[in-house]
Design the sequence.
């Protein structure tokens, strides 16, 4: 399984990579622009990401905007909802406004508040059917 970790903070990026390296092939992006480039390249190569862990607060382009572009692009490519990337938003801030924006307007699969707990992360991956129970 291909995984894209999008995180501007080095420590958080490395932590997510360590937590997910046993789950699949992890690739990294440090901002929203890099994430969109990687997302497009993966689709061009016919190997789209199954899981994307996307930080909400990033420079250049925040995670909310990246999420919307990714979902719009999947629709343009004719990706069926059941085959869309599972996108888990991550943030240091537990703001209800961010949750509403990510879920209802952006179409994310789930939401995690940092610091990321491995047990909770793996539970979320099972819920969204990225990992088997």
Sequence:
């Amino acid at each position: 399984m291909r995984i894209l970790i999008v995180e501007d903070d080095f420590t958080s990026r490395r932590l997510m990579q360590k937590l997910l390296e046993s789950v699949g092939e992890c690739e990294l992006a440090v901002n929203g622009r890099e994430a969109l480039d990687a997302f497009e390249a993966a689709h061009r190569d016919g190997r789209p990401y199954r899981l994307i862990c996307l930080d909400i607060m990033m420079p250049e382009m925040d995670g909310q905007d990246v999420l919307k572009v990714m979902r719009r692009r999947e629709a343009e490519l004719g990706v069926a909802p059941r085959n869309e990337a599972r996108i888990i938003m991550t943030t240091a801030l537990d703001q209800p406004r961010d949750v509403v924006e990510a879920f209802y307007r952006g179409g994310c699969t789930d939401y995690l508040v940092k610091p990321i707990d491995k047990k909770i992360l793996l539970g979320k991956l099972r819920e969204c059917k990225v990992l088997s129970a």
Q: What stands out?
A: Residues 78 and 100 are 26 Å apart (CA to CA). The radius of gyration is 13 Å. Strands lie at 2-6, 25-29, 51-55, 86-91, 110-113. The chain has a mean pLDDT of 90.
